[in-house]
Amino acid sequence: MATKTIASATVRAVKKRVLPSRAALVLTPTAVQKVKEIMSKEEAKGFIGLKVGVRQRGCNGLSYTLDYATTKDKLDEEVKQDGVTIIIDKKAQLTLLGTEMDFVEDKLSAEFVFNNPNIKGTCGCGESFSI
């Protein structure tokens, strides 16, 4: 499966949250709007949504990645919310359970932020984490 990397993301350790039952990942309205904006530019290229993955990186071990998804693999999780599709890579599923995906923009940066109650530690810059 060919994917095109679009961004890495920041993670934040948060206190436990109660999410709707069976929710693997919940998007804030701001994140939904940004995903719609990103996908509207790429719709004609055959992408079905964004894919969240995890890879070994940084001083704390893991970091999230965001790519364009052309297919959903057999063991991937699919989250559909408010007209957007997020595919969660099988390797990232356990690290994302109960997580809120947000999009935060300020004067210096604009990025997706994963507010994750499962994180035990993060690095100083917030790019990598440990479970």
UniProtKB/TrEMBL annotation:
Example GO BP: iron-sulfur cluster assembly
Domain Core: 25-127
GO cellular component: a single term: mitochondrion
PROSITE patterns found in the cross-reference section: HESB
Annotated GO MF terms: 2 iron, 2 sulfur cluster binding
Domain of life: Eukaryota
Gene3D superfamilies: HesB-like domain
PANTHER family on file: IRON-SULFUR CLUSTER ASSEMBLY 1 HOMOLOG, MITOCHONDRIAL, IRON-SULFUR CLUSTER ASSEMBLY PROTEIN
Family: Belongs to the HesB/IscA family.
UniProt cross-references to NCBIfam families, sorted A to Z: iron-sulfur cluster assembly accessory protein
Protein name per the record: Iron-sulfur cluster assembly 1 homolog, mitochondrial
Species of the source: Papilio xuthus
